Amino acid sequence: MAVSASSSAQQARQTLADRLGEIRRDAGLTGRELAGACGWYPSKVSRIENARTPPSSEDIQAWCQACDAAGQAADLIASLRAVEGMWVEWRRMERIGLRAVQEARLPLFERTQRFRSYSSWLVPGLIQTRAYTEAVLRAVQRRRVTVDDVDAAVGARMERQRVLHRSATFAFLIEESVLRSGIGGTEVMAGQLGHLLSVATLPSVSLGVVPMRPDRHRMPVEGFWVFDSEQVNVELVSGHLTITQPREIAMYADAFAELAEHAVYGADARGLVTEALHTLG
User: Fold this and answer.
1) Cβ–Cβ < 8 Å for 126, 160
2) Which residue, among 180, 256, 175, has the nearest Cα to 211 in the 3D structure?
3) What gap in Å lies between CA 58 and CA 78, rounded to an integer?
4) Can you give 188-199 as a three-state secondary structure string?
5) Strand partners, 243
6) For 143-196, how does the pLDDT look when each residue is reduced to its tens digit (9 = 90+)?
7) pTM for the full predicted model
8) Helix, strand or coil for residue 229?
9) Residues of CATH 1.10.260.40 domain(s) within the chain?
């Protein structure tokens, strides 16, 4: 399991480690005795209980068996899978292609009522054109995915965009630089900018653009999505991070609110989009 800097993931790892420690103590075993029963080096028990080394499902089964708590193994293994899902490297997530990744996110999008999305790199997926999506996913596939199912992945993302037309609210914040450093070429980018002007008229959508200026008080950060107040997703260079810790979710919500104060909306936002479109010639 990859170790991330997220306190959500770390806290979840420590919670699992604490439960394993409680099981050992309830069984009246020392760490050395448990290690001996499992055929491990004594230090392995200490590393697991201090969340320095993540256990495998086999480790958990052996642990519970040695502590006469085999009935708890299934629940603990389920917790392990949940922790693993908080931080997933791209190579693991995309090992069978890009379509499955797009489809896996649909249930979350369908149940969310309030979307907040901030992007400092690309136009957010929900408001991308088909051509822009194809350019983005093709670039991803060339860089890190051996399976070429880009056409199917594009279709899955386009299908997900239907959530824009149901009873939910969508607040999109994008850096002005996103309007000016595109992907796919002039024609693709022109179509995308025109689409933003159209999307901004939807009654459920708020589109804010954070202008490029030399006196900002809130610097750009990594792009992220806030789904209601239940979950934050962050796409990093190395992998996909899911945050569920309330304190951390609140930090991203505060960051969104601060960035929103720097953004322009309505006619001013459309003016920046139009200016970028004219720059394309």
Assistant:
1) yes
2) 175
3) 13
4) HHHHHHHHHHHH
5) 232
6) 999 999 999 999 999 999 999 998 899 999 999 999 998 899 999 999 999 999
7) 0.78
8) coil
9) 7-88
